[in-house]
Design a protein that fits this description.
This protein is mainly alpha-helical and about 260 residues long. The chain has a domain at about 105-255. It contains nine helices and five strands, in the order βββαββαααααααα. It has helices spanning about 55, 105-115, 135-140, 145-160, 170-185, 190-205, 205-210, 215-245, 250-255, and strands spanning about 1-10, 15-20, 50-55, 60, 65-70. The strands form two sheets. It has a three-stranded antiparallel sheet with strand order 3-4-5. A two-stranded antiparallel sheet has the order 1-2. α2 (about 105-115) packs across α8, α3 (about 135-140) packs across α4 and α6 runs antiparallel to α8. The longest helix is centred in the last third of the chain and has 28 residues, at about 215-245. It starts with a strand and ends with a helix.
């Protein structure tokens, strides 16, 4: 990257131009240190330390250590927990984190899980309401008043209504049972996501999984998706209770019809 400096006269006519090289590592460490203020991703580094004050000083990023120097207070694993010092989940080339928070990253990954693992598998198909199994109909038509119930119902609509093969019977039954428990308030959505992650782990290598040609990669994707869902479910459930949204949610099918 080059910084172009223009010299002008009193009438603002350009009299001279100069280009200064300005290169950075993926984590924002300067290779060259010209006398320019603008830093990596448009951030301005601290003049004394060279750290980046992300989120208006919310957290400091150390470009040489390639990590934050303080834990993320929003980390789902608690202060000092796993990866709470990591910048962009270790992938600064494909991701950016201008605020220094983990919430947006988790939300993005959970959305990617919903649209990748349970995505449209039939080219040219359009979303509809053709549900392959009674369990799918039960999940989608239930009054999904929980964060978990809404997410699972939406995933079933994206998957089953577009002609994708149904999940094995064991998983269908477990999803239906867990959605009912979450919708009745017997278990929080966090627990529901964790239970389904455990169900997928135990399903790996079983005769039913082999017969359905469900690979370990697919199971790993499902487990990660539910773990990410658990990380955001607590806040969503609390927000729904505070705002009264938990008492006024329509079924997922009614939302689709609208």
């Amino acid at each position: 990257m080059f910084i172009h400096i223009l010299a002008t006269d009193w009438a603002h006519s350009v009299m001279q131009a100069q280009s200064i090289p300005n290169a950075y590592t993926p984590y924002g460490s300067k290779v060259h240190r010209p006398g320019v203020r603008t830093g990596f991703s448009g951030q301005i580094p601290d003049p004394s330390t060279g750290h980046y004050h992300l989120g208006n000083g919310h957290r400091l990023l150390h470009p040489h250590l390639m990590r934050f120097i303080s834990p993320d207070p929003l980390s789902p694993f608690g202060e000092g927990g796993s990866n709470s010092y990591t910048y962009c989940a270790g992938d600064p080339i494909n991701k950016h984190d201008p605020t220094g928070g983990v919430t947006a990253f988790i939300k993005e990954m959970h959305q990617q899980f919903t649209t990748s693992f349970l995505r449209n598998t039939v080219p040219g198909a359009t979303p509809g309401r053709v549900l392959a199994t009674p369990e799918a109909q039960q999940i989608v038509n239930a009054p999904n008043k929980s964060f978990f119930g809404e997410r699972v119902a939406g995933a079933y609509i994206a998957k089953d209504s577009n002609g994708a093969p149904p999940l094995p019977q064991h998983l269908q039954t477990r999803y239906a049972e867990t959605v009912q428990q979450a919708n009745r308030g017997e278990i929080p959505s966090v627990v529901a996501h964790l239970e389904m992650a455990n169900t997928w782990l135990k399903f790996n290598g079983t005769p039913e999984a082999v017969a359905a040609k469900i690979t370990p990669g697919t199971i790993a994707t499902a487990v990660v998706g539910h773990l990410l869902g658990a990380a955001t479910a607590g806040g969503a459930d609390i927000a729904a209770l505070k705002t009264g949204r938990a008492l006024n949610l329509s079924s997922t099918v009614e939302k689709v019809r609208e």
